[in-house]
Write a structure and sequence with these properties.
The chain has one domain: Glycerol-3-phosphate (1)-acyltransferase. It has 236 residues and is α/β, with parallel strands linked by helices. Helix 4 packs parallel to helix 5 and helix 5 packs across helix 7. The chain is built from seven helices and seven strands; from the N terminus they run H-E-E-H-E-H-E-H-E-H-E-H-E-H. It comes from Nonomuraea purpurea. GO terms for molecular function: acyltransferase activity. Keywords: Acyltransferase, Transferase.
Length: 236
């Protein structure tokens, strides 16, 4: 039995009616290479993470480029009255970070990819702690998902959400109006890992390739040189 790749008309309409006008009101747009987003088929959209606002702004970008973004969200959100119904209706995937249930979210993501969904994935797992706001060393979930499913990984870099809502703050900085910049890169070449068992070293290497692709797009977007070595919050 086929499963939906988009929410029901009710939930999609509700989200679009709220998100698109709000996003348009809050930020100006500088969107680049949206044509690199595949219009069909299962795909992993791998992005940097700067702010609690960027999932909403990126969702607007992806929707305008023909894809409904399936987002991985904290499992606690699914238990909040009304909000829980909304995130379920919008096809979000629950994640229990730091628990055995985290593997379950990857299994659900793999199923969604097989169904033809576009999964918005933050390989860092949280907003960056890098002092310069560059992408950190990533976790291996996106790489595992890509290698096991064969889905393309599309690197997406963005800049500006952190000016609207800095990490850790609850009140947005509305004025002056910010610009949300997005740049999409070509698919990450993971062909050298084909046929190799997903051991820890393989997953780390593939993850580094994904993060390097995101960082390269961000460096071009910012017009700056990225650090040679990504910040690792674990101090490895």
């Amino acid at each position: 039995m086929s499963r939906p790749t988009r929410p029901s008309r009710f939930w999609e309409t509700l989200a679009v009616v709220i998100v698109k006008p709000l996003s348009t009101l809050l930020v100006k747009r500088d969107w680049r290479h949206g044509e690199r987003i595949p219009r069909s088929g299962g795909v992993i959209i791998a992005a940097n993470h700067l702010s609690w606002a960027d999932p909403v702004l990126l969702s607007h970008f992806l929707f305008n480029n023909g894809r409904w973004p399936v987002i991985l969200a904290k499992s606690a959100l699914f238990k909040v009255p009304l909000l829980g119904r909304a995130v379920i209706g919008l096809l979000a995937i629950p994640v229990d970070r730091g628990s055995d249930e985290a593997a379950k979210s990857l299994r659900v993501s793999a199923q969604r990819l097989e169904d033809g969904c576009a999964i918005l994935f933050y390989p860092e797992g949280t907003c960056t702690r890098d002092p310069g706001l560059w992408p950190m060393a990533g976790k291996t979930g996106a790489a595992r998902l890509a290698l096991e499913s064969g889905a393309q990984v599309i690197p997406v870099a963005h800049w500006g959400a952190q000016e609207l809502l800095p990490y850790g703050e609850k009140k947005p900085r509305l004025f002056p109006r910010k610009t949300f910049r997005v740049q999409v890169g070509p698919p990450v070449d993971l062909s050298k890992y084909a046929g190799r068992p997903p051991r820890a070293d393989v997953l780390r290497e593939a993850t580094a390739d994904i993060m390097a692709a995101i960082t390269a797009q961000l460096a071009e977007l910012r017009g700056e040189k990225a650090p040679e070595t990504p910040y690792d919050p674990a101090g490895r």
